[in-house]
Amino acid sequence: MSKTSPNALITRYFYQRSLRMRVVLSQLPLTITVLLIVGLSAAFQPEVLRDPLFQIGLWGQGIVLFACLLIPWGRLPYPSFLVIPYLDFIAVGFSRQGSATTLSGLGLLALFPVFWLAASGLARRCAVIGGTLATLLMVWVPIFLAPGPITTQQLSRPVVLPLMMLAFAITVAVITTSMDAQRVELEAKDAELRSALEASHDRERLLDDVVNTVSVGLVAVDADGHDVLLNRKQRTFHGLAAPDGNADPAEAELLIFAADGSTPLAPQDRPVFRAVQGESFSQQLIWVGQNGGARALSATARPRRDINGGFAGSVVAFYDVTELVSALATKDDFVSNISHELRTPLTSILGYLGLALDDPSVLTKEVVQYLQVAERNADRLLSLVTDLLSTASRTMEIKPRLTNLSDIIEDSLDSAGPPAAENGVTLLNDGRQPLMAMLDVGRIGQVLDNLISNAIKYSPDGGTVTVRARTVDGSAVCEVQDTGIGMDSDEQAGAFSRFFRAGGARSRAIPGVGLGLLISKTIVENHGGRMHLQSERDVGTTIGFTIPLHGPGSAVGPDPAAELTPLAVLPG
Protein backbone atom coordinates (compact mmCIF):
# COMPACT_ATOMS: atom_id res chain seq x y z
CA MET A 1 0.00 0.00 0.00
CA SER A 2 1.50 3.31 -1.06
CA LYS A 3 1.84 6.25 1.29
CA THR A 4 0.36 9.62 0.33
CA SER A 5 2.25 12.75 1.40
CA PRO A 6 0.43 15.55 3.29
CA ASN A 7 1.18 17.94 0.42
CA ALA A 8 -0.56 15.57 -1.99
CA LEU A 9 -3.61 15.34 0.27
CA ILE A 10 -3.82 19.15 0.69
CA THR A 11 -3.46 19.61 -3.06
CA ARG A 12 -6.13 17.01 -3.79
CA TYR A 13 -8.73 18.00 -1.20
CA PHE A 14 -8.17 21.77 -1.04
CA TYR A 15 -6.23 23.41 -3.88
CA GLN A 16 -7.94 21.37 -6.58
CA ARG A 17 -11.41 22.49 -5.35
CA SER A 18 -13.34 25.50 -6.65
CA LEU A 19 -12.70 28.90 -5.04
CA ARG A 20 -16.16 28.86 -3.39
CA MET A 21 -15.47 25.45 -1.83
CA ARG A 22 -12.03 26.59 -0.63
CA VAL A 23 -13.64 29.61 1.08
CA VAL A 24 -16.19 27.33 2.79
CA LEU A 25 -13.46 24.91 3.92
CA SER A 26 -11.47 27.83 5.33
CA GLN A 27 -14.50 29.02 7.33
CA LEU A 28 -15.57 25.57 8.49
CA PRO A 29 -13.06 25.13 11.41
CA LEU A 30 -14.38 28.28 13.13
CA THR A 31 -18.00 27.25 12.56
CA ILE A 32 -17.41 23.76 14.00
CA THR A 33 -15.64 25.24 17.02
CA VAL A 34 -18.53 27.64 17.66
CA LEU A 35 -21.02 24.76 17.42
CA LEU A 36 -19.00 22.82 20.00
CA ILE A 37 -19.04 25.86 22.32
CA VAL A 38 -22.81 26.17 21.89
CA GLY A 39 -23.25 22.52 22.76
CA LEU A 40 -21.09 22.75 25.86
CA SER A 41 -22.84 25.96 26.93
CA ALA A 42 -26.28 24.38 26.52
CA ALA A 43 -25.17 21.50 28.74
CA PHE A 44 -23.33 23.40 31.47
CA GLN A 45 -24.15 27.12 31.23
CA PRO A 46 -27.44 27.55 29.38
CA GLU A 47 -27.78 31.13 30.54
CA VAL A 48 -25.06 32.14 28.08
CA LEU A 49 -27.31 31.23 25.18
CA ARG A 50 -29.90 33.72 26.40
CA ASP A 51 -27.48 36.66 26.20
CA PRO A 52 -28.50 38.96 23.28
CA LEU A 53 -24.88 39.81 22.33
CA PHE A 54 -23.93 36.13 22.33
CA GLN A 55 -26.92 35.38 20.11
CA ILE A 56 -25.91 38.19 17.73
CA GLY A 57 -22.46 36.58 17.51
CA LEU A 58 -24.00 33.18 16.72
CA TRP A 59 -26.29 34.66 14.07
CA GLY A 60 -23.30 36.47 12.65
CA GLN A 61 -21.40 33.19 12.32
CA GLY A 62 -24.36 31.64 10.52
CA ILE A 63 -24.69 34.56 8.13
CA VAL A 64 -20.97 34.45 7.34
CA LEU A 65 -21.14 30.70 6.60
CA PHE A 66 -24.10 31.19 4.27
CA ALA A 67 -22.22 34.03 2.58
CA CYS A 68 -19.33 31.66 1.95
CA LEU A 69 -21.74 29.16 0.40
CA LEU A 70 -23.91 31.48 -1.66
CA ILE A 71 -21.58 34.18 -3.02
CA PRO A 72 -19.92 33.23 -6.38
CA TRP A 73 -16.40 34.16 -5.33
CA GLY A 74 -14.92 32.99 -8.61
CA ARG A 75 -16.75 35.79 -10.45
CA LEU A 76 -15.56 38.50 -8.07
CA PRO A 77 -12.05 40.00 -7.88
CA TYR A 78 -9.73 37.37 -6.43
CA PRO A 79 -8.93 38.96 -3.00
CA SER A 80 -12.61 39.75 -2.30
CA PHE A 81 -13.07 36.61 -0.15
CA LEU A 82 -10.79 38.15 2.51
CA VAL A 83 -13.79 40.13 3.73
CA ILE A 84 -14.95 36.90 5.42
CA PRO A 85 -12.25 36.80 8.17
CA TYR A 86 -12.89 40.49 8.97
CA LEU A 87 -16.61 39.70 9.38
CA ASP A 88 -15.53 36.82 11.64
CA PHE A 89 -13.83 39.35 13.95
CA ILE A 90 -17.19 41.16 14.37
CA ALA A 91 -19.09 37.93 15.15
CA VAL A 92 -16.36 36.75 17.55
CA GLY A 93 -16.41 40.17 19.24
CA PHE A 94 -20.16 39.95 19.95
CA SER A 95 -19.82 36.36 21.22
CA ARG A 96 -16.92 37.35 23.46
CA GLN A 97 -18.73 40.34 24.88
CA GLY A 98 -21.92 38.34 25.47
CA SER A 99 -20.09 35.64 27.42
CA ALA A 100 -17.56 37.81 29.22
CA THR A 101 -18.92 36.99 32.67
CA THR A 102 -19.50 33.25 32.13
CA LEU A 103 -17.07 31.96 29.45
CA SER A 104 -13.47 33.14 29.65
CA GLY A 105 -11.13 33.01 26.69
CA LEU A 106 -13.79 33.08 23.99
CA GLY A 107 -11.83 35.86 22.37
CA LEU A 108 -9.23 33.25 21.34
CA LEU A 109 -11.63 32.37 18.51
CA ALA A 110 -9.94 35.31 16.78
CA LEU A 111 -7.09 32.88 16.05
CA PHE A 112 -9.12 31.49 13.14
CA PRO A 113 -9.54 34.73 11.14
CA VAL A 114 -5.99 35.80 12.06
CA PHE A 115 -4.67 32.50 10.71
CA TRP A 116 -6.78 32.84 7.57
CA LEU A 117 -5.45 36.33 6.84
CA ALA A 118 -1.80 35.51 7.59
CA ALA A 119 -1.84 32.23 5.66
CA SER A 120 -3.64 33.64 2.60
CA GLY A 121 -0.33 34.69 1.05
CA LEU A 122 -1.84 37.99 -0.09
CA ALA A 123 -0.15 41.16 1.22
CA ARG A 124 1.22 39.40 4.28
CA ARG A 125 2.31 42.61 6.04
CA CYS A 126 -1.14 44.13 5.62
CA ALA A 127 -2.71 40.86 6.74
CA VAL A 128 -0.61 40.79 9.95
CA ILE A 129 -1.37 44.44 10.72
CA GLY A 130 -5.05 44.07 9.77
CA GLY A 131 -5.55 40.99 11.95
CA THR A 132 -3.84 42.67 14.90
CA LEU A 133 -5.87 45.89 14.55
CA ALA A 134 -9.12 43.92 14.14
CA THR A 135 -8.38 42.02 17.36
CA LEU A 136 -7.50 45.26 19.12
CA LEU A 137 -10.78 46.86 17.98
CA MET A 138 -12.66 43.71 19.06
CA VAL A 139 -11.48 44.18 22.68
CA TRP A 140 -11.45 48.04 22.74
CA VAL A 141 -14.79 48.88 21.06
CA PRO A 142 -16.86 47.52 24.02
CA ILE A 143 -14.76 49.71 26.35
CA PHE A 144 -15.39 52.82 24.28
CA LEU A 145 -19.13 52.02 24.06
CA ALA A 146 -19.49 51.40 27.80
CA PRO A 147 -20.80 54.31 29.93
CA GLY A 148 -18.41 56.15 32.19
CA PRO A 149 -14.88 57.41 31.83
CA ILE A 150 -12.21 55.39 29.94
CA THR A 151 -9.04 54.67 31.91
CA THR A 152 -5.60 53.49 30.86
CA GLN A 153 -6.02 50.40 32.97
CA GLN A 154 -9.18 49.49 31.06
CA LEU A 155 -7.39 49.83 27.73
CA SER A 156 -4.24 47.95 28.76
CA ARG A 157 -5.93 44.98 30.40
CA PRO A 158 -7.19 43.28 27.15
CA VAL A 159 -4.09 44.23 25.09
CA VAL A 160 -2.54 40.82 25.80
CA LEU A 161 -4.94 39.20 23.33
CA PRO A 162 -4.04 41.51 20.39
CA LEU A 163 -0.34 41.01 21.15
CA MET A 164 -0.85 37.25 21.10
CA MET A 165 -2.65 37.57 17.77
CA LEU A 166 0.23 39.71 16.46
CA ALA A 167 2.81 37.07 17.42
CA PHE A 168 0.61 34.32 16.03
CA ALA A 169 0.07 36.20 12.75
CA ILE A 170 3.80 36.85 12.33
CA THR A 171 4.60 33.20 13.00
CA VAL A 172 1.99 31.99 10.52
CA ALA A 173 3.15 34.51 7.89
CA VAL A 174 6.80 33.44 8.24
CA ILE A 175 5.92 29.75 8.11
CA THR A 176 3.61 30.11 5.12
CA THR A 177 6.17 32.28 3.33
CA SER A 178 8.76 29.52 3.78
CA MET A 179 6.25 26.87 2.76
CA ASP A 180 5.24 28.85 -0.31
CA ALA A 181 8.88 29.23 -1.31
CA GLN A 182 9.41 25.50 -0.88
CA ARG A 183 6.22 24.80 -2.78
CA VAL A 184 7.35 27.02 -5.66
CA GLU A 185 10.73 25.33 -5.67
CA LEU A 186 9.14 21.89 -5.58
CA GLU A 187 6.76 22.82 -8.37
CA ALA A 188 9.69 24.05 -10.46
CA LYS A 189 11.60 20.85 -9.77
CA ASP A 190 8.50 18.82 -10.50
CA ALA A 191 8.06 20.62 -13.82
CA GLU A 192 11.74 20.06 -14.60
CA LEU A 193 11.47 16.37 -13.73
CA ARG A 194 8.32 16.00 -15.79
CA SER A 195 10.05 17.66 -18.72
CA ALA A 196 13.10 15.42 -18.31
CA LEU A 197 10.87 12.37 -18.00
CA GLU A 198 8.98 13.30 -21.14
CA ALA A 199 12.26 13.89 -22.98
CA SER A 200 13.49 10.52 -21.74
CA HIS A 201 10.30 8.88 -22.98
CA ASP A 202 10.76 10.60 -26.35
CA ARG A 203 14.33 9.36 -26.60
CA GLU A 204 13.23 5.88 -25.57
CA ARG A 205 10.54 5.86 -28.25
CA LEU A 206 13.05 7.18 -30.82
CA LEU A 207 15.58 4.50 -29.84
CA ASP A 208 12.89 1.84 -30.06
CA ASP A 209 11.86 3.08 -33.52
CA VAL A 210 15.48 3.16 -34.70
CA VAL A 211 16.51 -0.28 -33.44
CA ASN A 212 13.36 -1.83 -34.90
CA THR A 213 13.86 -0.10 -38.26
CA VAL A 214 17.45 -1.14 -38.99
CA SER A 215 18.03 -4.42 -40.82
CA VAL A 216 20.57 -5.54 -38.23
CA GLY A 217 19.72 -7.84 -35.34
CA LEU A 218 20.55 -6.13 -32.03
CA VAL A 219 20.60 -7.67 -28.57
CA ALA A 220 21.80 -5.96 -25.39
CA VAL A 221 22.51 -8.02 -22.28
CA ASP A 222 23.35 -7.01 -18.72
CA ALA A 223 26.32 -8.24 -16.71
CA ASP A 224 24.35 -11.35 -15.68
CA GLY A 225 23.45 -12.28 -19.24
CA HIS A 226 19.79 -11.20 -19.12
CA ASP A 227 18.35 -9.57 -22.24
CA VAL A 228 17.61 -5.87 -21.78
CA LEU A 229 16.97 -5.06 -25.46
CA LEU A 230 15.99 -7.24 -28.41
CA ASN A 231 14.90 -5.62 -31.66
CA ARG A 232 12.45 -6.97 -34.21
CA LYS A 233 15.13 -8.30 -36.58
CA GLN A 234 16.87 -10.19 -33.78
CA ARG A 235 13.57 -11.79 -32.77
CA THR A 236 13.32 -13.07 -36.34
CA PHE A 237 16.84 -14.55 -36.14
CA HIS A 238 16.01 -16.03 -32.73
CA GLY A 239 12.92 -17.65 -34.23
CA LEU A 240 15.01 -19.21 -37.01
CA ALA A 241 17.38 -20.71 -34.44
CA ALA A 242 14.57 -22.17 -32.30
CA PRO A 243 14.10 -25.96 -32.57
CA ASP A 244 10.75 -27.19 -33.84
CA GLY A 245 8.17 -27.30 -31.07
CA ASN A 246 10.20 -25.06 -28.74
CA ALA A 247 8.95 -21.48 -28.92
CA ASP A 248 11.17 -20.17 -26.12
CA PRO A 249 14.46 -22.12 -26.12
CA ALA A 250 17.40 -21.45 -23.85
CA GLU A 251 20.63 -20.17 -25.39
CA ALA A 252 22.21 -23.65 -25.32
CA GLU A 253 19.20 -25.11 -27.19
CA LEU A 254 19.39 -22.72 -30.15
CA LEU A 255 20.37 -24.20 -33.53
CA ILE A 256 23.62 -22.30 -34.04
CA PHE A 257 26.38 -23.72 -36.23
CA ALA A 258 29.97 -22.87 -37.08
CA ALA A 259 31.10 -21.17 -40.29
CA ASP A 260 30.79 -24.45 -42.23
CA GLY A 261 27.04 -24.45 -41.58
CA SER A 262 26.91 -28.00 -40.20
CA THR A 263 29.11 -28.21 -37.06
CA PRO A 264 27.08 -27.30 -33.94
CA LEU A 265 28.73 -24.39 -32.17
CA ALA A 266 29.62 -25.08 -28.52
CA PRO A 267 27.72 -22.85 -26.06
CA GLN A 268 30.92 -21.17 -24.85
CA ASP A 269 31.82 -20.23 -28.45
CA ARG A 270 28.49 -18.61 -29.26
CA PRO A 271 28.45 -14.83 -29.73
CA VAL A 272 26.07 -13.94 -26.89
CA PHE A 273 27.91 -16.17 -24.40
CA ARG A 274 31.24 -14.64 -25.41
CA ALA A 275 29.75 -11.15 -25.08
CA VAL A 276 28.49 -11.92 -21.55
CA GLN A 277 32.05 -12.92 -20.65
CA GLY A 278 33.15 -9.40 -21.61
CA GLU A 279 34.79 -10.30 -24.94
CA SER A 280 35.00 -7.77 -27.75
CA PHE A 281 35.05 -9.29 -31.23
CA SER A 282 34.10 -8.55 -34.81
CA GLN A 283 32.62 -10.55 -37.68
CA GLN A 284 32.24 -13.98 -36.11
CA LEU A 285 30.54 -16.00 -38.84
CA ILE A 286 27.78 -18.35 -37.67
CA TRP A 287 24.77 -20.10 -39.17
CA VAL A 288 21.35 -20.21 -37.51
CA GLY A 289 18.52 -22.57 -38.37
CA GLN A 290 18.49 -25.64 -40.54
CA ASN A 291 17.60 -26.79 -44.03
CA GLY A 292 16.36 -24.15 -46.46
CA GLY A 293 15.67 -21.56 -43.77
CA ALA A 294 19.26 -21.36 -42.46
CA ARG A 295 20.92 -17.94 -42.54
CA ALA A 296 24.55 -16.88 -42.25
CA LEU A 297 25.12 -14.15 -39.66
CA SER A 298 28.16 -12.05 -38.89
CA ALA A 299 28.28 -11.20 -35.16
CA THR A 300 30.06 -8.21 -33.63
CA ALA A 301 30.10 -7.49 -29.88
CA ARG A 302 31.23 -4.57 -27.77
CA PRO A 303 31.08 -4.39 -23.93
CA ARG A 304 29.21 -1.65 -22.04
CA ARG A 305 30.73 0.12 -19.05
CA ASP A 306 29.04 1.63 -16.02
CA ILE A 307 29.89 5.04 -14.54
CA ASN A 308 32.82 3.50 -12.64
CA GLY A 309 34.24 1.74 -15.70
CA GLY A 310 33.04 -1.70 -14.59
CA PHE A 311 31.50 -4.26 -16.93
CA ALA A 312 27.77 -3.55 -17.29
CA GLY A 313 26.89 -5.89 -20.15
CA SER A 314 27.35 -6.03 -23.91
CA VAL A 315 25.70 -5.13 -27.18
CA VAL A 316 25.81 -7.73 -29.95
CA ALA A 317 24.95 -6.94 -33.58
CA PHE A 318 24.04 -9.69 -36.06
CA TYR A 319 24.33 -8.93 -39.78
CA ASP A 320 22.65 -11.20 -42.31
CA VAL A 321 25.45 -12.10 -44.75
CA THR A 322 23.83 -15.16 -46.34
CA GLU A 323 23.88 -13.70 -49.85
CA LEU A 324 27.49 -12.53 -49.43
CA VAL A 325 28.63 -15.96 -48.18
CA SER A 326 26.81 -17.64 -51.06
CA ALA A 327 28.41 -15.22 -53.52
CA LEU A 328 31.87 -15.95 -52.09
CA ALA A 329 31.26 -19.69 -52.37
CA THR A 330 30.09 -19.25 -55.96
CA LYS A 331 33.16 -17.16 -56.69
CA ASP A 332 35.46 -19.82 -55.24
CA ASP A 333 33.73 -22.50 -57.30
CA PHE A 334 34.09 -20.40 -60.44
CA VAL A 335 37.79 -19.70 -59.84
CA SER A 336 38.44 -23.36 -59.07
CA ASN A 337 36.60 -24.60 -62.16
CA ILE A 338 38.13 -22.11 -64.56
CA SER A 339 41.59 -22.79 -63.12
CA HIS A 340 41.17 -26.53 -63.72
CA GLU A 341 40.02 -25.84 -67.29
CA LEU A 342 43.05 -23.60 -67.93
CA ARG A 343 45.57 -25.94 -66.36
CA THR A 344 44.98 -28.84 -68.77
CA PRO A 345 45.71 -26.99 -72.04
CA LEU A 346 48.61 -25.10 -70.42
CA THR A 347 50.20 -28.38 -69.41
CA SER A 348 49.81 -29.63 -72.98
CA ILE A 349 51.27 -26.42 -74.42
CA LEU A 350 54.28 -26.63 -72.11
CA GLY A 351 54.78 -30.27 -73.03
CA TYR A 352 54.90 -29.60 -76.76
CA LEU A 353 57.08 -26.53 -76.28
CA GLY A 354 59.49 -28.70 -74.30
CA LEU A 355 59.55 -31.30 -77.06
CA ALA A 356 60.24 -28.64 -79.67
CA LEU A 357 63.09 -27.20 -77.63
CA ASP A 358 64.67 -30.60 -76.94
CA ASP A 359 66.44 -30.48 -80.33
CA PRO A 360 67.16 -26.83 -81.08
CA SER A 361 69.50 -27.80 -83.95
CA VAL A 362 66.56 -28.37 -86.31
CA LEU A 363 65.21 -24.92 -85.59
CA THR A 364 66.53 -21.55 -86.48
CA LYS A 365 67.94 -19.39 -83.70
CA GLU A 366 65.05 -16.94 -83.99
CA VAL A 367 62.42 -19.69 -83.70
CA VAL A 368 64.18 -21.06 -80.58
CA GLN A 369 64.07 -17.61 -79.03
CA TYR A 370 60.36 -17.29 -79.86
CA LEU A 371 59.63 -20.70 -78.34
CA GLN A 372 61.63 -19.89 -75.17
CA VAL A 373 59.59 -16.67 -74.70
CA ALA A 374 56.37 -18.66 -75.15
CA GLU A 375 57.59 -21.30 -72.64
CA ARG A 376 58.47 -18.66 -70.02
CA ASN A 377 55.06 -17.01 -70.30
CA ALA A 378 53.29 -20.36 -70.29
CA ASP A 379 55.20 -21.28 -67.09
CA ARG A 380 54.18 -17.97 -65.58
CA LEU A 381 50.55 -18.50 -66.54
CA LEU A 382 50.63 -22.05 -65.13
CA SER A 383 52.07 -20.72 -61.86
CA LEU A 384 49.24 -18.19 -61.66
CA VAL A 385 46.64 -20.90 -62.31
CA THR A 386 48.21 -23.07 -59.61
CA ASP A 387 48.01 -20.19 -57.17
CA LEU A 388 44.36 -19.67 -58.05
CA LEU A 389 43.64 -23.32 -57.38
CA SER A 390 45.39 -23.10 -54.00
CA THR A 391 43.37 -20.09 -52.90
CA ALA A 392 40.11 -21.49 -54.23
CA SER A 393 40.36 -24.84 -52.47
CA ARG A 394 41.71 -23.26 -49.25
CA THR A 395 43.35 -26.59 -48.54
CA MET A 396 46.73 -27.91 -49.60
CA GLU A 397 49.02 -30.76 -48.69
CA ILE A 398 51.34 -29.89 -45.81
CA LYS A 399 54.33 -32.10 -44.99
CA PRO A 400 55.81 -30.74 -41.76
CA ARG A 401 59.13 -31.88 -40.37
CA LEU A 402 61.41 -30.60 -37.65
CA THR A 403 63.11 -27.61 -39.22
CA ASN A 404 65.21 -24.65 -38.19
CA LEU A 405 63.13 -21.58 -39.12
CA SER A 406 66.25 -19.39 -39.16
CA ASP A 407 67.60 -21.41 -42.11
CA ILE A 408 64.43 -20.75 -44.12
CA ILE A 409 64.70 -17.04 -43.30
CA GLU A 410 68.33 -16.99 -44.43
CA ASP A 411 67.47 -18.67 -47.75
CA SER A 412 64.59 -16.28 -48.45
CA LEU A 413 66.76 -13.24 -47.72
CA ASP A 414 69.49 -14.56 -50.03
CA SER A 415 66.94 -14.96 -52.84
CA ALA A 416 65.60 -11.45 -52.21
CA GLY A 417 69.05 -9.85 -52.42
CA PRO A 418 68.99 -8.80 -56.13
CA PRO A 419 65.52 -7.14 -56.16
CA ALA A 420 66.34 -5.45 -52.84
CA ALA A 421 69.54 -4.00 -54.30
CA GLU A 422 67.61 -2.83 -57.37
CA ASN A 423 65.14 -0.92 -55.14
CA GLY A 424 67.85 0.38 -52.80
CA VAL A 425 66.39 -1.58 -49.88
CA THR A 426 68.56 -2.80 -47.00
CA LEU A 427 67.78 -6.31 -45.72
CA LEU A 428 68.31 -7.04 -42.02
CA ASN A 429 68.12 -10.52 -40.47
CA ASP A 430 67.05 -10.45 -36.83
CA GLY A 431 66.16 -14.14 -36.81
CA ARG A 432 69.50 -15.90 -36.87
CA GLN A 433 69.08 -17.69 -33.54
CA PRO A 434 68.09 -21.37 -33.93
CA LEU A 435 64.33 -21.87 -33.77
CA MET A 436 63.20 -25.47 -34.27
CA ALA A 437 59.58 -26.08 -35.30
CA MET A 438 57.45 -28.58 -37.24
CA LEU A 439 57.18 -26.85 -40.63
CA ASP A 440 56.76 -27.61 -44.30
CA VAL A 441 60.02 -26.12 -45.54
CA GLY A 442 58.81 -25.40 -49.06
CA ARG A 443 55.49 -23.87 -48.02
CA ILE A 444 56.92 -21.67 -45.24
CA GLY A 445 59.67 -20.63 -47.64
CA GLN A 446 56.93 -19.63 -50.07
CA VAL A 447 55.29 -17.53 -47.32
CA LEU A 448 58.54 -15.77 -46.45
CA ASP A 449 59.31 -15.17 -50.13
CA ASN A 450 55.89 -13.54 -50.55
CA LEU A 451 56.22 -11.37 -47.45
CA ILE A 452 59.79 -10.24 -48.15
CA SER A 453 59.01 -9.66 -51.84
CA ASN A 454 56.01 -7.48 -50.91
CA ALA A 455 58.10 -5.55 -48.38
CA ILE A 456 60.69 -4.80 -51.06
CA LYS A 457 58.09 -3.89 -53.71
CA TYR A 458 56.23 -1.60 -51.32
CA SER A 459 59.49 0.23 -50.49
CA PRO A 460 60.18 1.61 -53.99
CA ASP A 461 62.15 4.59 -52.70
CA GLY A 462 64.55 2.56 -50.57
CA GLY A 463 64.35 1.83 -46.90
CA THR A 464 64.89 -1.12 -44.60
CA VAL A 465 63.26 -4.56 -44.44
CA THR A 466 63.79 -6.43 -41.18
CA VAL A 467 62.92 -10.08 -40.56
CA ARG A 468 62.47 -11.19 -36.94
CA ALA A 469 61.77 -14.58 -35.37
CA ARG A 470 61.10 -15.61 -31.76
CA THR A 471 59.09 -18.04 -29.65
CA VAL A 472 56.01 -16.95 -27.69
CA ASP A 473 53.90 -19.32 -25.56
CA GLY A 474 54.87 -22.46 -27.45
CA SER A 475 54.58 -20.91 -30.91
CA ALA A 476 57.02 -19.59 -33.48
CA VAL A 477 56.42 -15.94 -34.38
CA CYS A 478 58.02 -14.55 -37.54
CA GLU A 479 57.56 -10.96 -38.73
CA VAL A 480 58.69 -8.93 -41.73
CA GLN A 481 58.85 -5.18 -41.13
CA ASP A 482 59.38 -2.54 -43.82
CA THR A 483 59.58 1.25 -43.90
CA GLY A 484 57.60 1.57 -47.14
CA ILE A 485 54.38 3.25 -48.21
CA GLY A 486 52.14 1.42 -45.72
CA MET A 487 48.34 0.99 -45.82
CA ASP A 488 45.36 2.73 -44.29
CA SER A 489 42.74 0.93 -42.15
CA ASP A 490 40.43 0.13 -45.08
CA GLU A 491 43.27 -1.42 -47.08
CA GLN A 492 44.37 -3.48 -44.07
CA ALA A 493 40.84 -4.89 -43.73
CA GLY A 494 41.01 -6.29 -47.28
CA ALA A 495 44.72 -7.19 -47.41
CA PHE A 496 44.13 -10.96 -47.28
CA SER A 497 41.34 -11.03 -49.87
CA ARG A 498 41.77 -12.37 -53.35
CA PHE A 499 43.14 -9.96 -56.01
CA PHE A 500 43.64 -7.21 -53.42
CA ARG A 501 45.81 -4.31 -54.57
CA ALA A 502 46.54 -1.36 -52.29
CA GLY A 503 45.93 2.11 -53.68
CA GLY A 504 49.59 3.03 -53.36
CA ALA A 505 50.62 -0.04 -55.34
CA ARG A 506 48.22 0.79 -58.17
CA SER A 507 49.21 4.45 -58.32
CA ARG A 508 52.93 3.57 -58.41
CA ALA A 509 52.38 0.70 -60.91
CA ILE A 510 53.93 -1.83 -58.54
CA PRO A 511 53.60 -5.26 -60.20
CA GLY A 512 51.48 -8.07 -58.70
CA VAL A 513 48.11 -9.80 -59.01
CA GLY A 514 47.01 -9.68 -55.35
CA LEU A 515 47.20 -13.39 -54.48
CA GLY A 516 50.42 -13.62 -52.46
CA LEU A 517 49.01 -12.71 -49.05
CA LEU A 518 45.97 -14.94 -49.46
CA ILE A 519 48.17 -17.89 -50.45
CA SER A 520 50.46 -17.17 -47.49
CA LYS A 521 47.45 -17.02 -45.17
CA THR A 522 46.19 -20.36 -46.48
CA ILE A 523 49.59 -21.99 -45.91
CA VAL A 524 49.88 -20.63 -42.36
CA GLU A 525 46.34 -21.67 -41.44
CA ASN A 526 47.01 -25.19 -42.71
CA HIS A 527 49.95 -25.22 -40.29
CA GLY A 528 47.48 -24.42 -37.48
CA GLY A 529 48.66 -20.80 -37.28
CA ARG A 530 47.43 -17.26 -37.88
CA MET A 531 48.59 -14.25 -39.88
CA HIS A 532 48.76 -10.76 -38.38
CA LEU A 533 49.20 -7.33 -39.92
CA GLN A 534 49.91 -3.83 -38.66
CA SER A 535 50.45 -0.89 -40.96
CA GLU A 536 50.39 2.90 -41.13
CA ARG A 537 50.29 5.04 -44.22
CA ASP A 538 53.72 6.50 -45.14
CA VAL A 539 55.31 4.82 -42.10
CA GLY A 540 55.53 1.16 -43.01
CA THR A 541 54.07 -2.30 -42.49
CA THR A 542 54.72 -5.18 -40.12
CA ILE A 543 53.27 -8.50 -41.23
CA GLY A 544 53.95 -11.95 -39.89
CA PHE A 545 52.62 -15.30 -38.76
CA THR A 546 52.35 -17.41 -35.63
CA ILE A 547 52.67 -21.22 -35.93
CA PRO A 548 52.70 -23.84 -33.14
CA LEU A 549 56.21 -25.20 -32.60
CA HIS A 550 54.99 -28.80 -32.54
CA GLY A 551 52.96 -28.61 -35.69
CA PRO A 552 49.24 -28.31 -36.32
CA GLY A 553 47.00 -30.37 -34.07
CA SER A 554 44.31 -29.90 -36.65
CA ALA A 555 43.93 -27.68 -39.65
CA VAL A 556 42.56 -24.29 -38.82
CA GLY A 557 39.73 -23.23 -41.07
CA PRO A 558 39.71 -19.97 -42.97
CA ASP A 559 39.11 -16.77 -41.12
CA PRO A 560 35.62 -15.68 -42.17
CA ALA A 561 36.37 -12.07 -41.34
CA ALA A 562 38.85 -11.89 -44.21
CA GLU A 563 36.17 -13.01 -46.67
CA LEU A 564 33.37 -10.73 -45.46
CA THR A 565 34.80 -7.52 -46.95
CA PRO A 566 36.72 -8.29 -50.18
CA LEU A 567 33.93 -7.44 -52.66
CA ALA A 568 34.71 -3.77 -52.17
CA VAL A 569 38.17 -4.24 -53.67
CA LEU A 570 37.45 -6.79 -56.40
CA PRO A 571 37.60 -5.51 -59.96
CA GLY A 572 34.18 -4.73 -61.41
Notable traits:
five-stranded mixed sheet; about 575 residues; alpha+beta; 19 helices; disordered C terminus; rod-shaped; about 55% helix; six-stranded antiparallel sheet
How would you characterize the overall build of this protein?
- The chain has 572 residues and is of the alpha+beta class.
- The chain contains 19 helices and 13 strands.
- Helix 2 (19-44) runs antiparallel to helix 3 (52-70).
What structural class should be given to the helix and strand makeup? alpha+beta
Shape label: rod-shaped
Whole-angstrom Rg: 49 Å
Helix fraction by DSSP (H/I, runs of at least 4): 40-55%
SS field, number of helical segments: 19
* Average of pLDDT: 82
Q: Work out the strand percent.
A: 15-25%
Q: How many DSSP-defined strands?
A: 13
| Unreliable residue runs | 503-512, 554-572
**Gap between N and C termini, in Å?**
70 Å
The largest β sheet comes out as: 6 strands, antiparallel
Widest beta sheet: strand line-up: 2-1-6-5-4-3
